[in-house]
Amino acid sequence: MLVERFVEGEAISQGERDKVAELAAQWRDRLSDISWFMRCLNEQINGLNSC
Fold it and tell me: Are 39 and 29 within 8 A, CB to CB?
């Protein structure tokens, strides 16, 4: 995954760095939206209950 390569310090192109910044902004926005966060959390919890 691109972000993992970035975090591990691998050399990536400027275009890839731009994409990482775009993804980080998107994740930041989503995590600041509590309803989105709770929906995702509940989906995972419901999946565990189906085991």
Answer: no
